[in-house]
Amino acid sequence: MKRVRAIVVAGFGINCEQEMQAAYQKAGAQTDIIHLNDIFNERVSLSDYHIINFPGGFSFGDDLGSGKVMANKMKYKQTKNGDEFFKKLKKFVNRGKYILGICNGFQFLVKMGLLPNTMRDLHQEVTLTFNKSGKFEDRWCYLKVNKKTNTPFLKNISMIYLPIRHGEGRLIFANKKIRENIKKNNLNCMSYCNKNGKVTSKYPFNPNGSELNCAALTDKTGRIFGMMPHPEAFLSVYNHPAWTYLKRKNRNKEKGDGLRIFENIVKHVKKNYKGI
User: Domains in the chain, start-ordered, CATH in brackets?
Assistant: First the structure.
């Protein structure tokens, strides 16, 4: 039986690629870290993979807004044979495959127009901008999953505790229509909440001031998923700031909750994608 294959994009200031590769390897996928230039130069073919992953980091130093330069590069860059890279991404998704963006990667997806894409025209509808606190936030947050979301990344997860580390994580919608479309279609798939699971705009539970307290988005297909928190930073119980407490509660617990997201998508692809 063939294995699920995941590609993790690297280069130009991305710096969480090894953690993401580790997440997929622990979840049972064959995983390659590939520099974006190698994809542009067609040394690697996206068609060989089932999941494209855009990790966190500080692409191009975030000098023109987090993720904006990288998003433009990917949206307008031509590959070696003259095709637009963005067209290859669209073809990838149209073939029933999956895209994940975390933190800086989430910023790429919204600024390319891949998320939330409520109007199906691939124009930018939302942005991720400076935190309301006016500072870089590095803390752990509780997150509640929208029960009506259809993304396989979040299957059987109701609440999760993950680290965030970003200076521009505040999600803002272009207008009321976009906001209502997101709510109507349950694309706001994960929200900041308190430890009791109550969704709240109160700081620091909502660390950045995002509208709808939104920490993650999907498109209508559920196959494109972006989030600000870092599940790849909680693969082991020992990553948790209170790991000794968790071990006292459950001595057999070794996995971190973030690993569940990667296990979900690898299991889903293996079960549902033809050719696996």
Answer: 5-272 (3.40.50.880)
Q: List the one residue out of 11, 35, 33, 37 whose CA is nearest residue 23.
A: 33
Both tokens of 220, joined, read 């209508």
Write the CB contacts of 64 (distance below 8 Å, at least 6 apart in sequence): none
Q: Which residues are catalytic?
A: 103, 230, 232
* pLDDT tens, per residue, the chain with 276 residues: 579 999 999 999 999 999 999 999 999 999 999 999 999 999 999 999 999 999 999 999 888 888 999 999 999 999 998 889 999 999 999 999 999 999 999 999 999 999 999 999 999 999 999 999 999 999 999 999 999 999 999 999 999 999 999 999 999 999 999 999 999 999 999 999 999 999 999 999 999 999 999 999 999 999 999 999 999 999 999 999 999 998 998 888 899 999 999 999 999 999 998 766
Cis before residue 204, ω within 30 degrees of 0? yes
Residue corresponding to tokens 């939330």? 116
Whole-model pTM over 0.90: yes
